[in-house]
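User: Teach me something about this protein's shape.
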Amino acid sequence: MRLLTALAHSILIAAAPVVWGFSTLSISGRQNSPTTTICRLAVAVPLHEGAPFTNEESKKRHKPLLNEDLWVRTLDYEGFGREVSALGKELALQSGDDDVAHLEKIVSWRNVAAIVGIVSMGMTPNPITIIALSTWTFASWTMLAHHTCHGGYNRIDAGEFHSRGFALGSVGQRVRDWCDWMLPEAWNIEHNRLHHYRLNEKNDPDLVQRNLAFLRQAQLPMLAKYVVLAALFPVWKWYYYAPNTFKELEINRLNREGKSLPLLFEPEAAITIGSLLCPQTASEHALRDIMKPMDFFVRVLSPFLASRFIILPAPLLLIPTVGPTLYAHAIVNLILAELVTNVHSFVTIVTNHAGKDLYTFDDAVKPKTPSFYVRQVVGSANFVTGNDLNDFFHGWLNY
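Assistant: First, the predicted structure itself:
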């Protein structure tokens, strides 16, 4: 019962900011030089999709700070930056056998979940199989792929868990290392480069309150908005996240080739499979000039769809007499696990970016500067930690 209560609480935390909108304070900082930081202070309003961020708009947002936000004027940014840099160097020197042991433990827990799920997937659909398969997918993404693609294990002898080459280069490598709905190359661009280096800015592709402004502004009863959001929980990775990460990869490709984006295309606007297949706005129609639906389905979705839902349970068909029944059970277990892991990852990740005390930013700062470090702290949420088991089911994202 306590677990169900905690899950319900997490879902409400994840849903409320999206439906009601954010009421957050905003710090806008611009790093002019290595030693000078100019910070503009403003109260943020919910961002309208495609709204420009101009100096005039920023000036209109300037309002007196609340008492709990006065720290932004008195914080020693340069001192904080020096402390963070020193801590990073200290932790880098401490990298070693303990980190390898920790990684091996997480891999073993993930593998246990995978083995339990795969061995039992031919059984009548049941919670143990579904949770095991769901945890296999969740852990592979949030702890192994996420930490590896960020280079978290690059300084230790972690074998294949190195950012250079992990799940990259071929379908076989992707299936072996990390196969999910998102194309790893696309996720590296969208998440590692754009989201983390532009956290809660206009150009952050994961700015939740902007991406779901359509729902907040919809002329629907509040209950209906919750129903719509609940319907997104179990399908969000393939319906929303996969096409958005691929969009950023294709934009990056065009930029590298020196090509201009289509005139009517809005690069900050979030997309879905629905807007890709049935475009409604001018920007969505222009999207077809950037990413082709067939290319998206073949390159991005089909490897996971085929390997997880067709090839993985296929050997069950070889079992005489009961093979088709076992195969049908496996398909149902895999589909239900997919729905569960989407909900699990949604309530874990979105709550990390939700909360009325989080900050949004009107402009950008240079990476690895004091203002950049401050934004990483005040732009995301932490949760109560405790032990490895609790952290494991948070994907180690609760810090």
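Now, about its shape. Residues 125 and 333 are 5 Å apart (CA to CA). The chain has 18 helices and three strands. If you'd like, I can walk through any region in more detail.
User: That's plenty for now, thanks!
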